[in-house]
Every structure is written in C-alpha cells, then in structure tokens.
Write a structure and sequence with these properties.
The chain is built from 7 helices and 13 strands. By secondary structure, it is α/β, with parallel strands linked by helices.
Length: 245
Amino acid sequence: MSVVALVPAAGRGERLGGSVPKALVPVGGEPLLAYAVRGLHSSGCIDRVVVAAPPSHLDLMVDVLARAGVEAVLVAGGPSRTQSVRLALDAAGADATVVLVHDAARAFTPAEVIRAVVAAVEAGAQAVIPVLPVADTLKRVDPAGVVVDTPNRAELRIAQTPQGFAADVLRRAYAAYPEDSTTDDAGLVERLGVPVSTVPGHPNALKITTPFDLAIAEALLATCGPYVAFSATKGPHVASPGEPR
C-alpha cells in the first residue's frame, strides 16, 4: 500500500489577517506548513506528501520546506480548496491506495491521530475522520436569528483532519461532483452513500483560523514543544506536468 497525504495550502487566510497565505504564517518562528508536513512524516505511516501551493508563492513554499528539512511534492493549487485538493489528488500517483487530506492550519495534529486514521483505512474502512465530542450546547436558528431547536449534542461531533480515504473512493467523489466546493472531503464521500467512520481526534489538532487561534498555537508550542523533526533525504520539489511519480 502507498499512503499519500494531500495538503491544500493555497488559502489566503483572510480571517487570520496576515500578509502571506495562511500556510506561511509563522508560529514560534516557523511557518504552519512546515509543522504540518513534518507532523505527517513523523507519524511514520506516510509515504508521500503532496502540497497544493498558491501559484504566486510556489517557490517560497519550496524554500520553506527545504529549510525545514521536510520532503514534499509541490503543485500549483487552485482558487478554491476543492480545486486545490483535486490538483493534489491528480499528483498523488496511480500507486496511491490510501489518501489523506490534511489542513495545513491543523499544524499540531498529534502523530497518533494520523496513525489511527491510516490504520482504520488499511483495516478496511473506506473513509475515516478524526472527531471530538461537542462540549457546548448548540442552537439551530432561522434566517432571522430565532432559535428553531436545540440539537442533541450527544449525537454531534467536531470533525478534524487528516481525513482518510481509500484512494478510489476519494477519486470517485471528486469525479461525481466536479463543480462542488467543499471544506469537508468526507461530505462529498457521504453523498456517494459511502459510510464514513470515525476515530478519536485531539484538542491539539485545532484549526488555526483567527488571531485568537494563533495565540493558542503559540502557547501550545511553548508548552509542548515542536514535533520530532523528520529528516528528508530528497527535499521538496515542484512537480512538472506529466512528471512520472
């Protein structure tokens, strides 16, 4: 089996308020992308990482990963997350049997979560996502902001990444819904009628979207320290059209 992780990293991160794409925003002096790719490799179960980068920052992301000492294939991403995942999936290679989709913004996802997702797919699940219980009471409201009802939070979960799939299932989902834009790849797979399993997520896998999240990430890094570094032997490189993989 070949396990390939896709990292759509072409987002602008407007809510974070940075002057660079969100994946290049630094935490503790190092960009989120470097932590995310290093974390994937440090799990010990990823054969290849494909990063979809903003075309305007492709060379910079190559340099970031080279300086971080982590290996990845970089491709130019698209204007939406869905298009970036599609382009990265095209670059995953025909030998990929398990595909993960991971947000660079979840840069501190523990290795055990990544391993659990991969193990579940390798054990036969067609789609797997890490989840956390919902701690807050949730309200469903109408367009006017009036409460409609209160969902039972015992039945609800917070979805995280990486989301893992049998490669043919994810390819089928993207082929079936070519015009759809989604922030949740498992949602596309659900629409195929494919069951999506879950494994326990982790609070450290928070999605860094706002300045508040960034402050939490800085505190997390100061408390827990960085991941064990993964020493790449090849370094990152930009995939050329039609390049064998």
